[in-house]
Specification:
mainly alpha; 128 residues
Length: 128
Amino acid sequence: MPSNRPTRDELLEAVVEFLEKRVMPKLDKHTAFHTRVAANVLNIVRRELEQGPKLDAEEVERLKSLLGEDGTLGDLNAELCNRIRQGDLDHRNPDLMEHLFLTTMGKVSVDQPIYSAYRRALEEEEGA
């Protein structure tokens, strides 16, 4: 069976490596900075493609449980906001706080997985 090579991850990684190793060293500081930003964006897109569907599915399941209703991620988040705004849910609800923590951790794992506070939170969670 033929493989679908290169994969989208391999393609994204190749572009990032090209930018970082071949292009950036030849650029002035200002342009190199913007090239670094572009490489970071490509890495975020790669992680979003890898992790996004699973993170979204987990978020939907938590919201369904928390809110006691079904719907799309957007609809459930809108309902969550309404309930927080109306005072039906607040920081005293441990399920809400757990949901917000896990959702934030998921988003940071995509956007900034090397962020020091994220790393500390992972270590604390593993140690608990």
